[in-house]
Amino acid sequence: MKARISMITLGVDDLEKSIQFYRDGLGFPKMESPPTVAFFTLNGTWLGLYPREALAEDAMVSSEGQGFNNFALAYNVASEAEVDATLAEAVAAGATLTKPAQKVFWGGYSGYFQDPDGHLWEVAYNPFVWIGPEDE
Length: 136
Hints:
Blueprint: E1 7-12, H1 15-25, E2 38-41, E3 46-51, H2 52-59, E4 73-77, H3 80-92, E5 96-103, E6 109-114, E7 120-125
Parallel strand pairs: 1-3, 4-7
Antiparallel strand pairs: 2-3, 5-6, 6-7
């Protein structure tokens, strides 16, 4: 297996609400998609949104669950000011701020928000190394 992630698919409770959050609120470019799923391009990776029940059924697991999902998505930016601006943009789009931006133990600066379905996103500035596409 090659070390890469082609697509991250999030199970969502309200597909249209989640599309609006990512497309209209965060400005993610939505691709042409069938009406039962939504795809966004993320500079080399895709984000998929699919109804939670259907995604669980496809994976043959229970859709029941709440609380911490055991993972967080990360969005790295080039400055502390950009962390603050990105978190504000997400909250304005309907996200819930779970951890305000702050200096963190490893020497960077980050904060967290949850999307409308509770998926955690960390917005971080790492002053030691750039984690992201080379063209930014």
